[in-house]
Amino acid sequence: MKNAYAVILAGGSGERFWPLSTKARPKQFISLFSGRPLLTLAVERLEGVIPADRIYVITAERLVDDTAAAARNVPRVNIIGEPCKRDTAPAIAVACGLVKKRDPEGVVCILTADQLMSDMQTFQRTLTDSVEIAARNDVIVTMGIQPTYPATGFGYIRAGAPVEGATVTEFYHSEGFVEKPDEDKALEYLNSGRYFWNAGMFIWSTRVMSAALARCAPDLCELCDLIAECEGYDEQSEVLNRSYPALRSISIDYAVMEHVDNIVMARGSFGWDDVGSWPAVAGHFAADMNGNVVIGSCEQMDCSNNIVVSEERLTALIGVRGLVVVHSDNATLICPRDRAEQVKKLIRRIAARPDGEKYV
Amino acid sequence: MKNAYAVILAGGSGERFWPLSTKARPKQFISLFSGRPLLTLAVERLEGVIPADRIYVITAERLVDDTAAAARNVPRVNIIGEPCKRDTAPAIAVACGLVKKRDPEGVVCILTADQLMSDMQTFQRTLTDSVEIAARNDVIVTMGIQPTYPATGFGYIRAGAPVEGATVTEFYHSEGFVEKPDEDKALEYLNSGRYFWNAGMFIWSTRVMSAALARCAPDLCELCDLIAECEGYDEQSEVLNRSYPALRSISIDYAVMEHVDNIVMARGSFGWDDVGSWPAVAGHFAADMNGNVVIGSCEQMDCSNNIVVSEERLTALIGVRGLVVVHSDNATLICPRDRAEQVKKLIRRIAARPDGEKYV
Questions:
Q1: Residue B312: CB partners within 8 Å, gap ≥ 6?
Q2: Does the distance separating the beta carbons of A339 and B319 come in below 8 Å?
């Protein structure tokens, strides 16, 4: 697609998939699916739609090398390292600057690095249609995912009237973003059929982006312009190192989306999965007749509903049920499936150990 | 002690402590206690009582090097490798031959390699007294351990009338060996106060040994004599390689002890522990306030009564109770405490895997 650029946000922390993911090896680097890192899959998903040299990846500075390795054909100069963590809005401002400099008519697809999409063809169709809408109109296109369960872990987009048009993808005028709901609200949203998960994917022209930033976040607009004026990678890095630490940490939802009314939602039905927990990972693998999911080597006797990730060693289980067992090269997690989310709390305790740095 | 020789039987299998122990690294080599292998502790226990050059260790041929390393000061020529597994009676016949050749007046202490004794002083006292009794009388001294619970995993010795004498150790005439009892019988034995665990330790003169073998097991008596006639280690090995395969596999209890009536039991009260299972191992370590025993590195959140052996990696547990978790360098066992014994069955399944040899 002419003028289409992708910017993959690949910051990420290593908490939910500890010990397989760590600070030094966040979720986008784990290779549980198709044997390749999620980031690699995210880049591959754009094949035939956006050429590799028009793909940018924004990550933490310390992860630039690994990111370049996982992002395969993406040119090294397109891998941008953030000197510190500042949430999505600053990263998106940088993305806007990068593309603006290169192509004032550019359309930027803000994408994520650590999610799965089972129907790549539909994803590409949705993306292509979104780019066209964004190129021709003063709108921000956001992807809304049809909920499949009453999730409390995502923000939602309320869909309004359909946008008239001849695309395969359905577009709706957005009636607003809503924050993560409680369980009752989530069920209400699910049943209404009008609420969609906010997947954090936005497609907008640099023109629309600049205007939105200028109005809603002048400091980020300034950063965007500084980046757009840079000559080369080194100058870019200097600007980032100078500007970033002073920025506030703020998401694009809070900084922009909640303050604009020109949002159009593309209905995304491409098997999107945030794979936000070990049980979610297990959902992508076939279970044995006792409900056990094994990635790697495992021998079980009288066991059921366990999730075992054991690629470098043999795990032998007797008489245990509903456990998550995950080994990394130097640590092992064992917990009931329904407590897998508490690993975040555990990580803080591990980090506080004298030798904690080795493990988190 | 003049004329006293020790023969430590160190065959052993690697089943009960899998994955820490394996075929190539049986129980006597695991270093959970005092940081040293059980075999090393067994040798150290003789310090000051039997000089190192009068200690022999009989093990499997494939384990001779590791045995020599763990047995520290014991001369290499005193480490005897059995070409195949044939239970205790043939090994004891060999022991008798070795000592007979060296010292016709020798008293042989048959000892075990993979048990713990917390009161070394009392053990040495008991051993010294037993050697004296065995040197002066035509008896086989066996050590009987005062039971502390109704064990079904040991054979028992029924103690009869006390043996008159001036030793610190109490000796009783044995009224016979009985096999492993069922639970009711075991409780009866415990309450009677007259039954003691057969710990597999025997002290007898080569003269008494030869006579008993000649009467009860002529084939083993022949082996004993062949060994006694050997000149040097190489000839010994040749004899073993030639004779052993044809021998029946039989324990000393069946071969001799059940057929003789000159057995005297030394009452052993030196904190003997067979440490036959992971829960038994845990009993030798201090638990935290939630009953968890950790050997190595472990972080636990809302956990109780777990046994964790994690010396080379960090084990992180959330909300699990009563589990045994043991890591070796290439395998991990997870099971409830009360099913730890089923690991034997599991090992057979693991051995049947295409890559099973790596793990068992």
A1: B296, B327, B329
A2: yes
Bridge-based pairing of strands A263-268 and A140-145 is: parallel
Q: What is the ipTM of this complex?
A: 0.88
* CA-angle at A252, arms to A207 and A149, nearest 5°: 120
**Residue A314: pLDDT band with limits 50, 70, 90:** very high
CATH architecture of the region A4-273: Alpha-Beta Complex (3.90)
| Residues 268-327 of chain B whose Cβ lies under 8 A from any Cβ of chain A | 297, 299, 301, 310, 313-320, 323, 325, 327
A331 lies within 8 A of chain B by CB: yes
Q: Which residues of B touch A299 (CB under 8 A)?
A: 346, 349-350, 353
**Domains of chain B, residue spans:** 4-273, 278-358
**pLDDT tens profile A35-50:** 899 999 999 999 999 9
- H/E segment holding residue B257: none
Residues contacting A2, CB < 8 A, separation 6+: none
Cβ atoms A129, A266 nearer than 8 A? yes
The model scores a pTM over 0.80: yes
Encoded tokens for B306: 């777990």
Q: CB B203: neighbour CB atoms within 10 A?
A: 29
Q: Per-residue pLDDT tens for A237-260?
A: 999 999 999 999 999 999 999 999
Q: Note whether B315 contacts A332, CB cutoff 8 Å.
A: yes
Chain B residue closest in CA terms to A18: B316
- A184: closest CA of chain B, how far (Å): 27
Q: What digits encode the pLDDT tens for the residues B161-187?
A: 999 887 899 999 999 999 999 999 999
Return the structure tokens found at B176.
Answer: 């016979």
Contact A301 B346 (CB under 8 A): yes
Of A299, A334, A358, the CB nearest to B325: A334
For residue range B193-228, what is the model confidence (pLDDT) as tens digits? 999 999 999 999 999 999 999 999 999 999 999 999
